[in-house]
Design goal:
By secondary structure, the protein is α/β, with parallel strands linked by helices. The protein has one domain (about 1-220): Rossmann fold, CATH 3.40.50. It contains seven helices and eleven strands. It has helices at about 10-15, 35-45, 60-70, 85-90, 100-120, 140-155, 170-175, and strands at about 1-5, 20, 25, 50-55, 80, 120-125, 160, 180-185, 190-200, 210-215, 215-220. The chain has a nine-stranded mixed beta sheet, with helices on both faces. It starts with a strand and ends with a strand. The relative contact order is 0.23.
């Protein structure tokens, strides 16, 4: 079963939308439209009467809501779980546990509680790379992400997630874990989008022009 992305042009690229209950990596640098795409995905769920959840680990929920208003994106009905680090996290010291271990336990407890509470059909995570600061190495991070996404999918949620893509931190593990990869970029010609991978479904390859305006993202197929 396909789940609409809420963006007509993207649904066309995906031959009808995302496959229900799977996880997709929205790849790209900051400022390329990843959060807007995720919001439109969630807003489409609200329109269809679904419970949806935005898990933010990088930008405060209040700022996301404020910015969405500038784009005329109506986030009423979107549940937010704000897991951005508090000031206390940086001021605190722990006698027994490494701060990352304590924070990791708190974060996953909060996520589990929220998932169990609202049973969302759509989840957007921005950004999953924040989990890296909570674990000792890349191997543990990969296992953690796999386990986390399996948990969400076991709850019948369709998941989109972002990660910070910088040369110092390769993302091959995330690409392997994801059921699909959608890449956003900005060059001298403007914003572009490309579907790079879709397990279990065909898609239209290549780079396509993206417009970001008052109605969010619009995609023009090449």
């Amino acid at each position: 079963m396909k789940v609409s992305s809420g963006i007509e042009g993207l649904d066309k690229l995906l031959m009808g939308g995302f496959i229900k209950g799977r996880a997709y990596y929205i790849k790209g640098e900051s400022g390329t439209g990843r959060t807007i795409l995720g919001l439109q995905f969630l807003i489409e769920g609200v329109k269809r009467g679904e419970k949806v959840l935005f898990i933010t680990l990088t930008e405060r929920a209040e700022y996301i809501k404020e910015n969405s208003k500038k784009l005329f994106l109506e986030v009423e009905g979107v549940e937010f779980l704000d897991l951005t680090p508090s000031a206390e996290y940086y001021r605190s010291s722990y006698d027994i546990f490494h701060p990352g271990e304590v924070e990791r336990e708190r974060i996953f407890e909060e996520i589990t509680r929220k998932i169990e509470e609202i049973s969302p059909r759509r989840v957007f995570i921005d950004s999953i790379s924040e989990f890296r600061r909570l674990v000792p190495n890349a191997f543990v991070h990969k296992r953690q992400v796999i386990s986390f996404l399996k948990f969400l999918n076991s709850k019948d949620a369709t998941v989109l997630f972002t990660s910070e893509t910088i040369s110092e931190i390769p993302d091959q593990d995330l690409e392997y874990v994801a059921d699909g990869i959608i890449e956003l970029k900005r060059d001298e010609e403007g914003f572009k989008i490309s579907v790079r991978k879709m397990r279990g479904s065909d898609f239209i390859p290549g780079w396509h022009k993206v417009e970001i305006g008052e109605e969010g993202i619009k995609i023009h197929l090449s």
